[in-house]
Known about the structure:
Blueprint: H1 7-19, E1 35-52, E2 57-72, E3 81-94, E4 99-115, E5 120-134, E6 140-155, E7 167-176, H2 185-193
Antiparallel strand pairs: 1-2, 2-3, 3-4, 4-5, 5-6, 6-7
Amino acid sequence: MNTMSRSRVGRVLGTGLAIGFAASVVMSVPATAKPIDRGSDVVETTFTDTNFCDAGVTVEVNGVEEVEYRFNARKPGTAPYWHANVWAHWTYENLDGDVVRETTRLVDKDLAITDNGDGTLTILVLATGNTTIFDESGTAIARNPGQVRYEVLIDHNGTPEDPSDDEFLEFLGLVKESTGRTDDFCAAVLPVLG
């Protein structure tokens, strides 16, 4: 079973990365829990943003995100818990060849799963890690360490114990705002790329 294509990966690579990063934590899965699925994937993204940071600047964006993930069942017949380690490397280059680099190390994991009794699961997620932005000389110009907690709604398609057919329905919002320093990305990079 390859559940990497399932919607939780989009959560990590999209919502999880967008809302926060922090210092790593230790997963609290009982020693007897065995992964029902594990794997890794690499996602490469390239696009041109013609209005970067709403400043009218054209920037070529290139990213590589590496994900190692696993699902652990804590009790038979219940929804398994997701845990992912993500390494992301992004490059932003303007038309003059000026470059800014961004690196992220992220842990994204389910803290609590509630079966809503209507075919859906509400999942409380911890996203924790660190993002650092570097100018062309390699000097850090912005940082975003910390953690956030957020909830998502998942349709389990009648099989809460099988994540391969799950469908992401909705981002329910932040439960806990970022705990760490949160430098403004655009304020940091526009002096280099603008």
